[in-house]
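Per reviewer request, we include the raw input and output of the structure prediction for the construct analysed in the revised manuscript.
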Amino acid sequence: MKWSLCAVLVALNSVFQIFMYSILAFFFITVMTPVIAPSAEAAVVDITIADIAKNVLIFLGIPFAAGVASWFFLARRKGREWYDRVFAPKISPLALVGLLFTIVVMFALQGEEIISRPLEVARVALPLLAYFLLMFFMSFGLSHRLGFTYGQSATQSFTAASNNFELAIAVAVATFTISSIEAFTAVIGPLMEVPVLISLVNVALWIKKTYYGPDGLPVRRRS
């Protein structure tokens, strides 16, 4: 059940990003940048919403459409059991390999910048750390209060706390070039996300032991 819930959440997140990522990115780049950093150099960003949308469709829309097409044609032709037990396990490692390849290449190209600019890294990393922790604990608390099981709560919380940094890296590279400050900033995301989420696994296990019963249902504590 929890794996199905996670898959549904990821799919909905992908659909939402296809439609909203370009709008949000354009808003933050063209509207919020002059407000937050009104200097001439920071405020002038030559980018259109069409540029961002094109990159989103390439790096997210095409893989999503390919996944839907593979399910529609192969599952109907070969059957769902063959699709789940044979095809999916063979193709699923490709996503991890692609992500790891992207991260390794980006770290190789931006590694010197990361080491030589520790203050800039900290300026990006600290807000990200606050975001991960805030989303994780808020999601767990709300799920517990609504009566979700531990499996559902953990799935919701880790999905909420995680981010699609591979898309951010791809869009930053395609839009601003691989040597840009935007690409440098995007690389710090997975550098922070992986160790933080791994650490939160232990927190989730402690929450399970403290706030959930053996049946996985929330335990209501008296104040």
